[in-house]
């Protein structure tokens, strides 16, 4: 059995050998170029093996056998690489370099191996074409750097590296546009994001043209590096891209080869850890150990050039003019100088010669606060003195103190506290003399080395110092900077005004595109800080190494900074004097006090007025607050106390808006950009309260390094704290970012004007048609605000109207809304409208808002109920009285009383009827007797005689008619016998006595 098994195994081995032999027939033996060495993963004992990996599997046979490798902790020094055949560290040859345990990527002619660019598809939703619009978005190699996409698509640059030990990654970047989001994060091999602080994840903004370095520690194992950009593009503006270069990763165990020097650099000795740029007018190719000189007679090359360029004939673009410094005679002249380095040829056909110098002219006067004292240079006035620039310095009179600051309006030389420089994308710096140039009555942008250079002008202010009498007024205006400028452009130039507080990060305050006529701009400092103001001019943001638009220029005519702590004095201002009889020194005024010019004493502003900063010393410095507003105790600003009263006829409506809360929020949208990116606008509104209850908007992208506590207090560098502010919110889904992003926070209202039912206040108009009202029983209440900060799109600043409307169907917090035809809250970008519907906006309830209902009388008791008049348009205030129960007389009593009176009346009527009927019969009988008696001649009735009474004369009775008013009984009788009397009422009785009276 065993023999049989052995025989079968032998046959199988022979067959396998024959098959391998047949398969190897026709294939060559492997040479050194057919394979490369790699190490296996380290096992639990720290051992690894070196194995040969074929370049093309199956192309050759006879690969070297695996051998035991070096220790897993083994690494080479900088300038060395691990030669895998001998497994020993070997120096790099000249023309190459090595980091030892790291890799560096500094050449971006094409995307290096291992790097990939991935565009994240936008949300389709209602915009089905959004997914296709990002196919062309990518990080683009630009030679010395990478450039991100310039649209709003989210694009990631990805690189995976496996580290044998803990290491780091560092890179240089430019990130000038806060509308673009730029983050760097790391994932492990399970696609789980590593824990990173906000400061390590979100990149800080950089100055225009300046490179910043960012370093992050890496853990051993697989690290997937992500550089991700994305933005929200508003309007027609183009996003400024992110630039990335010199990516260096430390922590790899070894490098098996050296990196050749990129063109324009060289390494002249073996074992180099870096390559050196070639000097000016020399060049080098790929992997050079030395640089080759150019023929300077006809060619030139800048620092780090990969080739020489031909010198062209000189033109007007190759020189610039300067004003010489004042000489001993107080004269200056215009001179022309070639741009350095000079790259053009003189004296050849078509060359433009350097113009001759101009005539010597008197130097311009010194700037305010300086004097020349018959010397060629201007010097600052000593402390406590002032000058307007044309006269010697003088001492301020008693009761005044010198102003502090800077006022530049003459530009013979660059002031000592100002610096000029030039930055471009490819190099960290271009020649500083090509930044800004003085030109007598203005300073203007220089030529630069290329059209897309940033020409920088900077002034540093270490802090601000308020005038003595205002030094204790916290929260006042600490200072302001005002400058006058113009731009003249033929391309897409842009002029920036930026600031950097306490050397944190530079932010763009305002920018202007294209040609702008001469104008003035002012920025107010509301807190004391060390600040650098920067002006930057870029002729085009299209990458370029040419100089074609040198005639595109920016000019600054005047710059003034008030209250600069290291400033000079150009004049004097009034101050308050000590109350001591012998005191003549200026003293600070308490908050809310102005200087009375007649007494030079501090006087408090009247109630409900606010003190205007830097106003003249008189009562006019205290301005009254608007309607239904009051000032804080320091008279710094006005605010609403959430109470309002309105009288209509004889009725007074009282409103209490406290239930609405201190700050309301509204997020409208969603809205979509032209690319289909979804975003929202969030508005925070502080309706009532002073400085302690303001609304806060924060950019959580460029300011994530600020602590949460600081952000809540509004202390972040990119935090807005005001009455009304706006932020752009980008949802987390659909953009590839992992958090909801808040950016582009702006101020809509920093001044409260007042509350009124009218539609106009201080030039701001509320448009009732924006929010149609169905009921007019309770008027709308309008809150008016204004932002005094001017900008290019809104020269007069922004204004806001918040309309409060009583709606009992809403909660007390209510709902905020914007006009339907202006979903962003504004139709022109300058005036904003909001409607706040709430039951809390209804007036306070009074006794006029309810009525009484009387219940039925039951058991000699009656209920009195009180109910609200519908619809109920009030809140709080008077409450409904409780139900009352009162005694009452029941219906049975009144029914009995009525029945008794009815029966009595019936009996009375029957009795009277019988009585009158009987009486009538008797009268008929007597009357018939009388008629019968009257028919007998000369015979009078005996009983019913109408004879003259005894003792009466007939003469007295001849013409006398006696009438007696019938009694009530007689009237009743007459009524009862009315029908029968008609037959005998006019019967003429015959009598023998012609003058006898007839009674009827």
TrEMBL record:
Q: Where in the cell is it found?
A: Cell membrane
Signal sequence, start to end: 1-23
Q: Where are the transmembrane segments?
A: 893-917
Recorded topology in the membrane: Single-pass type I membrane protein
GO BP terms? positive regulation of BMP signaling pathway
Indicate yes or no for the key word Membrane.
yes
Record keywords: Cell membrane, Disulfide bond, Glycoprotein, Membrane, Signal, Transmembrane, Transmembrane helix
Residue limits of the MRH domain?
A: 640-844
**GO CC terms:** plasma membrane
Major place of residence = membrane
Asked if the Swiss-Prot or TrEMBL record annotates the protein with the keyword Cell membrane, the reply is yes
Q: Which Gene3D superfamilies did the record assign?
A: Mannose-6-phosphate receptor binding domain, Tumor Necrosis Factor Receptor, subunit A, domain 2
Query: What Pfam families does this protein's entry cite?
Result: ELAPOR1_C, GBD_ELAPOR1, GBD_ELAPOR1-like_3rd, MRH_ELAPOR1_9th, TNFR_ELAPOR1_6th
Provide the family line: Belongs to the ELAPOR family.
* Protein name (Swiss-Prot/TrEMBL): MRH domain-containing protein
Organism source for this protein? Takifugu bimaculatus
Question: In the record, what lineage is assigned to the organism producing the protein?
Answer: Eukaryota, Metazoa, Chordata, Craniata, Vertebrata
């Amino acid at each position: 059995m065993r023999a049989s098994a052995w025989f079968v195994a032998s046959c199988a081995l022979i067959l396998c050998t024959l098959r391998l032999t047949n398969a190897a027939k026709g294939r060559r033996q492997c040479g050194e170029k057919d394979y490369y060495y790699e190490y296996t993963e380290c096992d639990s004992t720290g051992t690894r093996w070196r194995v040969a990996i074929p370049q093309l599997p199956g192309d050759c046979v006879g690969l070297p056998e695996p051998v035991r490798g070096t220790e897993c902790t083994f690494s080479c020094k900088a300038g060395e690489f691990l030669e895998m055949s001998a497994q020993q560290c070997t120096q790099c040859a000249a023309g190459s370099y090595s980091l030892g345990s790291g890799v560096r990527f500094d050449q971006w002619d094409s995307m290096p191996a291992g790097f990939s660019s991935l565009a994240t598809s936008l949300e389709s939703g209602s915009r089905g074409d959004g997914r296709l619009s990002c196919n062309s978005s990518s990080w683009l190699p630009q030679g010395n750097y990478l450039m991100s996409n310039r649209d709003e698509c989210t694009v990631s640059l990805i690189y995976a590296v496996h580290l044998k030990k803990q290491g780091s990654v560092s890179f240089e970047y430019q990130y000038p546009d806060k509308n673009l989001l730029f983050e760097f994060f790391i994932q492990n091999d399970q696609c789980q994001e590593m824990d990173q602080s906000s400061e390590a994840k979100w990149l800080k903004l950089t100055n225009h043209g300046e490179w910043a370095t960012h370093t992050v520690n890496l853990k051993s194992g697989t690290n997937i590096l992500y550089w991700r950009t994305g933005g929200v593009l508003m309007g027609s503006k183009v996003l400024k891209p992110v630039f990335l270069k010199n990516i260096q990763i430390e922590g790899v165990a070894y490098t098996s080869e050296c990196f050749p020097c990129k063109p324009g650099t060289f390494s002249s000795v073996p074992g180099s850890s870096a390559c050196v740029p070639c000097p000016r007018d020399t060049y080098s190719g790929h992997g050079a150990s030395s640089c080759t000189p150019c023929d300077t007679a006809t060619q030139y090359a800048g620092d780090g050039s990969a080739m020489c360029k031909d010198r062209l004939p000189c033109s007007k673009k190759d020189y610039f003019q300067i004003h010489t410094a004042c000489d001993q005679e107080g004269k200056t002249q215009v001179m022309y100088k070639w741009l350095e380095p000079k790259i053009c040829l003189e004296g050849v056909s078509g060359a433009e010669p350097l113009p001759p110098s101009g005539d010597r002219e008197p130097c311009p006067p010194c700037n305010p606060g300086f004097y020349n004292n018959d010397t060629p240079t201007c010097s600052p006035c000593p402390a406590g003195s002032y000058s307007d620039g044309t006269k010697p310095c003088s001492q301020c009179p008693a009761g005044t103190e010198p102003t502090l600051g800077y006022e530049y309006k003459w530009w013979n030389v660059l002031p000592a506290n100002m610096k000029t420089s030039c930055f471009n994308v490819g190099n960290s710096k271009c020649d500083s003399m090509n930044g800004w140039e003085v030109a007598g009555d203005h300073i203007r942008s220089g030529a630069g080395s290329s059209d897309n250079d940033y020409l920088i002008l900077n002034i540093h202010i270490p802090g601000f110092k308020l005038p003595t009498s205002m030094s204790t007024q916290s929260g006042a205006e600490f200072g302001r900077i005002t400058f006058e400028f113009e731009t003249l452009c033929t391309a897409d130039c842009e002029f920036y005004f930026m600031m950097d507080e306490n050397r944190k990060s530079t932010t763009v305050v305002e920018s202007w595109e294209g040609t702008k006529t001469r104008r003035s701009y002012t920025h107010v400092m509301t807190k004391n800080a060390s600040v650098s103001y920067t002006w930057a001019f870029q002729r085009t943001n299209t990458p370029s190494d040419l100089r074609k638009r040198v005639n595109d220029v920016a000019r600054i005519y005047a710059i003034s900074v008030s209250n600069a702590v290291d400033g000079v004095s150009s004049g004097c201002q009034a101050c308050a004097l000590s109350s001591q009889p012998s005191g003549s020194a200026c003293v600070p005024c308490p908050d809310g006090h102005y200087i009375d010019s007649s007494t030079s004493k501090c006087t408090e502003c009247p109630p409900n007025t606010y003190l205007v900063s830097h106003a003249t010393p008189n009562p006019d410095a205290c301005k009254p607050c608007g309607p239904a507003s009051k000032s804080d105790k320091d008279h710094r600003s006005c605010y609403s106390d959430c109470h309002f009263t309105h009288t209509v006829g004889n009725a007074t409506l009282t409103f209490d808006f406290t239930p609405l809360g201190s700050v309301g929020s509204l997020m409208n949208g969603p809205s979509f950009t032209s690319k289909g990116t979804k975003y929202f606008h969030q508005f925070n509104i502080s309706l009532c309260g002073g400085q302690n209850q303001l609304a806060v908007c924060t950019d959580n992208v460029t300011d994530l390094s600020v602590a949460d506590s600081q952000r809540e207090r509004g202390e972040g560098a990119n935090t807005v704290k005001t009455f009304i502010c706006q932020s752009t919110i980008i949802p987390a889904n659909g953009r590839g970012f992992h958090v909801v992003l808040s950016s582009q926070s702006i101020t809509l209202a920093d001044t409260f004007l007042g509350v009124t039912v009218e539609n106009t206040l201080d030039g701001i108009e509320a448009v009732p048609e924006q929010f149609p009202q169905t009921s007019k029983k309770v008027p709308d209440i309008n809150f008016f605000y204004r932002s005094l900060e001017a900008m290019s799109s809104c020269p007069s600043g922004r204004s806001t109207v918040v309309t409060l409307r009583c709606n009992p169907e809403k909660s007390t917090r209510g709902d905020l809304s914007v006009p339907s035809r202006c979903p962003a809250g504004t139709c022109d970008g300058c005036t904003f409208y909001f409607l706040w519907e709430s039951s809390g906006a209804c007036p306070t309830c009074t006794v006029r808002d309810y009525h009484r209902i009387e219940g039925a009388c039951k058991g000699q008791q009656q209920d009195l109920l009180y109910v609200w008049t519908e619809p109920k348009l009030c809140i709080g205030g008077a409450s409904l009285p409780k139900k009352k129960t009162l005694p009452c007389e029941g219906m049975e009593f009144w029914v009995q009383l009525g029945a008794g009176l009815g029966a009595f009346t019936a009996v009375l009527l029957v009795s009277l009827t019988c009585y009158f009927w009987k009486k009538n019969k008797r009268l008929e009988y007597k009357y018939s007797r009388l008629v019968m008696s009257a028919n007998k001649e000369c015979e009078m009735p005996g009983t019913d005689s109408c004879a003259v009474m005894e003792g009466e004369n007939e003469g007295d009775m001849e013409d006398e008619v006696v009438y007696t008013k019938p009694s009530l009984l007689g009237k009743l009788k007459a009524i009862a016998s009315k029908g029968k009397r008609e037959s005998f009422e006019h019967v003429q009785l015959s009598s023998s006595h012609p003058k006898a009276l007839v009674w009827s």
